[in-house]
């Protein structure tokens, strides 16, 4: 069942949750995001999300995942490590050039 997952957070579901809980940062305590063996996963979320405590992102076996929910603001003041396969990393699509530059030094190949 999980190997057919294409999206982690849909805009519709996130909208419902934030409506119910107010405008809280749902990921304020998330420190590690590990995604493995999700061959059909295309997106975590379509837009950048705030992850103030995020320290590590690890992606393996997710060849369709081309965008991360990060922008240049996501890198500010953080020591983030992004782990993944080199082939996957070179195909990641960034929001803009400043985002790509901000995250180039965070990559750690596995």
From TrEMBL:
Task: Offer one Pfam family short name for this entry.
Answer: LRR_RPS2
Q: Which InterPro entries match?
A: At4g27190-like_LRR (IPR057135), LRR_dom_sf (IPR032675)
**Segments forming domain Disease resistance protein At4g27190-like leucine-rich repeats:** 3-68
The protein depicted here goes by the name Disease resistance protein At4g27190-like leucine-rich repeats domain-containing protein
Origin species: Gossypium raimondii (Peruvian cotton)
């Amino acid at each position: 069942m999980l190997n057919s997952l294409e999206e982690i957070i849909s805009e519709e579901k996130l909208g419902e949750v934030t409506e119910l809980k107010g405008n809280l940062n749902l990921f304020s305590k998330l420190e590690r995001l590990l995604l493995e063996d999700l061959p059909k996963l295309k997106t975590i979320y379509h837009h950048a999300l705030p992850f103030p405590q995020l320290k590590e992102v690890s992606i393996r076996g997710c060849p369709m995942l081309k965008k991360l929910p990060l922008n240049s603001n996501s890198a500010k003041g953080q020591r983030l490590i992004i782990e993944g396969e080199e082939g996957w990393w070179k195909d990641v699509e960034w929001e803009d050039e400043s985002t790509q530059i901000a995250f180039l030094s965070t990559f750690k190949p596995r």
